[in-house]
């Protein structure tokens, strides 16, 4: 994680943009590098500024946050060494969570999250970790336990090159375990787990652990 985290704030409401910028700029290790008011502008500003994290509303006029997320991925602007995206919304809806995480978002927070949760989520995203509010995490787990749709052929094909140990690691990522917890569960070193996680992300085409967790939820028992 960089010593100083640069953030791009994206929201169509000027008051929300200003409020989020003020909250984040007040953190000693976070700097707001710029703002945007819709998804199209967010992509262009991100390409120019290359921020560590985008804090982006999911519902905006013209081009929304999901469009921007997909376009950032298409342009190769997401992932390790590039930008991470933290989705922010007032709508706690399963479809948005799945779509955002499957498209490569590092986290998903509700707009009524505390200042502390917002700062912690930005730091987690910058460090390459998943950042989900407790409410969203509960809904993902409940959705998995209550049944899921049949996986598509494309989703199953993304698992084809995984070794059995990598499948085990992917399953534990889905269950929300950290690298240290996975190491304890599998009785291997932390370095070995990091290697497995990196290979899982590369082989499945996932850019974040959250994206891998959604894939695993839809494909693994």
UniProtKB/TrEMBL annotation:
<keyword id="KW-0238">DNA-binding</keyword>
<dbReference type="Pfam" id="PF00196">
    <property type="entry name" value="GerE"/>
</dbReference>
<feature type="domain" description="HTH luxR-type">
    <location>
        <begin position="155"/>
        <end position="220"/>
    </location>
</feature>
<dbReference type="InterPro" id="IPR016032">
    <property type="entry name" value="Sig_transdc_resp-reg_C-effctor"/>
</dbReference>
<keyword id="KW-0805">Transcription regulation</keyword>
<feature type="domain" description="Response regulatory">
    <location>
        <begin position="6"/>
        <end position="126"/>
    </location>
</feature>
<feature type="modified residue" description="4-aspartylphosphate">
    <location>
        <position position="57"/>
    </location>
</feature>
<keyword id="KW-0804">Transcription</keyword>
<protein>
    <submittedName>
        <fullName>Response regulator transcription factor</fullName>
    </submittedName>
</protein>
<dbReference type="InterPro" id="IPR058245">
    <property type="entry name" value="NreC/VraR/RcsB-like_REC"/>
</dbReference>
<dbReference type="InterPro" id="IPR000792">
    <property type="entry name" value="Tscrpt_reg_LuxR_C"/>
</dbReference>
<dbReference type="InterPro" id="IPR011006">
    <property type="entry name" value="CheY-like_superfamily"/>
</dbReference>
<dbReference type="InterPro" id="IPR039420">
    <property type="entry name" value="WalR-like"/>
</dbReference>
<dbReference type="InterPro" id="IPR001789">
    <property type="entry name" value="Sig_transdc_resp-reg_receiver"/>
</dbReference>
<keyword id="KW-0597">Phosphoprotein</keyword>
<dbReference type="Pfam" id="PF00072">
    <property type="entry name" value="Response_reg"/>
</dbReference>
């Amino acid at each position: 994680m960089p010593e100083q985290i640069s953030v791009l704030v994206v929201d169509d409401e000027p008051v929300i943009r200003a409020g989020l910028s003020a909250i984040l700029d007040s953190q000693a290790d976070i700097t707001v590098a710029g703002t945007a008011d819709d998804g199209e502008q967010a992509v262009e500003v991100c390409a120019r500024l290359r921020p560590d994290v985008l804090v982006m509303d999911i519902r905006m006029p013209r081009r929304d946050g999901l469009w921007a997320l997909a376009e950032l991925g298409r342009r190769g602007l997401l992932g390790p060494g590039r930008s991470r995206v933290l989705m922010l919304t007032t709508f706690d809806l399963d479809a948005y969570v799945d779509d955002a995480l499957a498209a490569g978002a590092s986290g998903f927070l509700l707009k009524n999250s505390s200042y502390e949760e917002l700062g912690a989520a930005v730091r987690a995203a910058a460090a390459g970790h998943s950042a989900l509010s407790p409410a969203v995490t509960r809904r993902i787990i409940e959705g998995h336990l209550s049944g899921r749709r049949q996986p598509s052929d494309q989703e199953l094909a993304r698992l084809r090159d995984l070794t059995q140990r990598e499948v085990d690691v992917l399953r534990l990522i889905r269950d929300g375990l950290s690298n240290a917890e996975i190491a304890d569960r599998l009785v291997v070193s932390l370095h070995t787990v990091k290697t497995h996680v990196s290979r899982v992300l590369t082989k499945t085409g996932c850019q974040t652990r959250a994206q891998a967790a959604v894939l695993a939820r839809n494909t693994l028992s």
